[in-house]
Specification:
alpha/beta; seven-stranded parallel sheet; six-stranded parallel sheet
Length: about 400
């Protein structure tokens, strides 16, 4: 019996595209799965009927869903309150049903799990995902080496010591945290470590294969266009201004260029960035789409873009958009210094890594990407790499099940 603790709401796209599909894979080894989420604006966004429907739907798959309210402000006290609530819930559930594994997604959930493990036994799997404290300092939210940062680093050190197994997203993160595990699969204390990048469910993209690309492009008035697409957020680590300048360069070099932005971020802000660079409103689309719709829009594109701030914390990052791009057969233009992207994009020949952020760098990258666009085998090659590196069944599922087997049989 595993309790998966997730400090996000069930309806959030990340939970629907990452957490729940991963749990379906873990279920294949006859592990009983309980899922605890923290729901923002709980009373306003959920009623008893909606909760019952979701519980029933997930239970039919073998996932037993529980939820607690998420509290946002004041930041630190609210998080502490949620940690206490989550830990008490985990302890109660373990005493009622015995939890063998507390599977914690990221540091806040790990703190709940560590407390629960202390009082009720069982093992703790720390699904680290990213360098959480450094992410907040790199984003400017916390002062570098400030009190909050130092406090969280002390807690992180305790969590790493308390854990019985680990998941990281990149080989770079493994090299930093668990260098010995690259050869053995275990850290120096014999605890199992797996690298599991952000994967995609092939079923999400299967239906898009059946849709005629030209039919989609015709409906979207994109016939004859070279479509550059970006999926995801703007601001923070995402280099909005640099992307806007890149898109402007693409439009200058190719009069048939079209920019497609699929984002949950403020559309007006993105629009202002593009128009300030001289891109006509007729030559771009900014749209908020559901995760289920993303494959259809990507099917209409030609080139995908990902610009993320290259900082220490991003060595642990595996952007989901990269897997989605490749699964859609799109070559990628990305900056360097983010997770394992340099090795992936250059090593597997699925796109271009920018040398810098000047107009000359953009022009060179755009000229190089034209080679991919004239290669009839490029799209199929990108899809093949997506299957090898990011398939949720062949990569995430296989590695999670192996990790659970090692965790449950380990005597460490």
């Amino acid at each position: 019996h595993a309790l998966y603790l997730c400090y996000f709401g069930l309806r959030e796209p990340l939970v629907q595209t990452q957490v729940v599909p991963y749990l379906r894979e873990i279920l294949k080894d006859n592990i009983k799965i309980s899922l605890l989420t923290f729901e923002p604006n709980f009373k306003e966004t959920w009623n008893a009927e909606q909760i019952a429907i979701e519980k029933k739907k997930l239970a039919e798959e073998g996932i037993f869903w529980y939820s607690l309210p998420y509290h946002k402000r004041p930041s630190v006290p609210a998080t502490v309150y949620d940690v206490v609530n989550g830990a008490f819930f985990a302890i109660r559930l373990s005493r009622q049903e015995k939890v063998d594994v507390f599977h914690a997604r990221v540091h806040v959930s790990a703190l709940m799990s560590a407390i629960a493990k202390t009082f009720s036994g069982g093992k703790m799997l720390f699904d680290i995902r990213g360098f959480f404290p450094e992410e907040y300092t790199d984003a400017g939210v916390w002062k570098e080496n400030g009190l909050i940062y130092r406090s969280v680093k002390r807690i992180e050190k305790w969590l790493l010591k308390k854990s019985d197994g680990y998941v990281v997203l990149t080989e770079k993160a493994r090299e930093i945290l668990f260098p010995q595990s690259a050869k053995t699969g275990f850290d120096k204390f014999g605890r199992p470590v797996e690298v599991i990048p952000c994967c995609i469910d092939p079923k999400r993209f299967a239906y898009a294969k059946e849709i005629d690309r030209e039919t989609i492009r015709q409906k979207m008035n994109l016939v004859g266009k070279c479509v550059f697409v970006y999926v995801g957020s703007f601001g923070g680590w995402y280099l909005t201004d640099d992307m806007a300048r890149f898109f402007a360069q693409a439009h200058r070099q190719n009069p048939n260029a079209f920019t497609m932005i699929l984002t949950q971020s403020n559309a007006e802000m993105v629009k202002q960035k593009l128009t300030a660079q001289g891109i006509s409103e007729n030559n771009f689309l900014i749209k908020k789409v559901s995760p289920a719709e993303v494959p259809k829009y990507l099917k209409a594109a030609d080139v995908a873009v990902s610009f993320i701030k290259a900082c220490y914390s991003k060595q642990s990052s595996s952007p989901t958009k990269i897997a989605e791009y490749l699964a859609s057969g799109l070559p990628i233009i990305s900056n360097s210094g983010v997770g394992d992207l340099d090795a992936l994009i250059e090593g597997e020949k699925v796109g271009i890594i920018l040398k810098g952020f000047t107009e000359k760098d953009y022009a060179e990258a755009l000229a190089e990407i034209d080679i991919f666009l004239t290669d009839a085998n490029s799209s199929e090659h990108c899809r093949r790499i997506a299957h090898q590196k990011f398939d949720i069944e062949q990569v995430a599922g296989k590695n999670y099940r192996r990790l659970y087997q090692r965790l449950l049989t380990s005597k460490v």
